[in-house]
Amino acid sequence: MTEEKKDSKKCNGKKKIMVAYGFIQLGSSFVSAIALAAIAFSFCFLKKESKAFNNCVTEIVENGSTNAQAVRYCNGGD
Asked: What is the largest distance, in Å, between two alpha-carbon atoms of the chain?
């Protein structure tokens, strides 16, 4: 009878460790998913910003400036 209690105590400790491991694994997966979503949104905003920059450069070049002057102007230069 004492052997059964010892076995159940050993098993009980392993169960707690496995449950803790499961929660840690689930939490890390959740954090990874949020990080990937943030990266995807940043690419979306980057695409919009690059499109606006390209439109700015095209417009300035059409007004008679060189490409270098247009890029400088669209980057915030004079």
From this structure: 95
